[in-house]
Amino acid sequence: MLHGGHDDQVQRLLIVLQPGSYVRPHHHSQQWEVLVALQGRGHLLSFSEAGHLLDRLEMSNSSPVAQIPIGAWHGFFVLEPNTAVMEIKPGPYRPNEFAEWAPSEGAAGVPQFLECLAKGEVGDDFR
After folding, report:
1. Bridge partners (DSSP) listed for residue 68
2. Helix spans in 1-127 (H)
3. CATH architecture for segment(s) 10-119
4. Where are the domains of the chain?
5. Which residues touch 107 (CB under 8 Å, ≥6 apart)?
6. Distance from C-alpha of 89 to C-alpha of 72, rounded to nearest angstrom
7. In the sheet where 53-59 sits, what is the strand order?
8. Considering the entire predicted model, what is its pTM?
9. Average of per-residue pLDDT across 3-21
């Protein structure tokens, strides 16, 4: 965490991820979000509310910044070890609003869901 607390007007978080990490699809109904890839590589995945894959954007040193609009469903699929991403969004802190069609972190279905995400193409249904 790179800010003073949950009430700060700008929330900044440095996240280091490994392949097999799970960033459950979610949205922020009251906040936009900016992601900055600092090292490594991953895919920012955009979904419809119903669970259809809308886009797959590779984030890396050559394409390091993505803006996620308020209410946009998204997740992140890690491609390289030690992938580091900075997350920036307006405060105060609000918890993620997770997709009901995606398994909870730690659930038995997560490895299978990650396999599907790895192969998923735009238009695929993840419900």
Report:
1. 33
2. 110-119
3. Sandwich (2.60)
4. 10-119
5. none
6. 13
7. 53-59, 42-47, 73-78, 23-27, 97-98
8. 0.93
9. 91
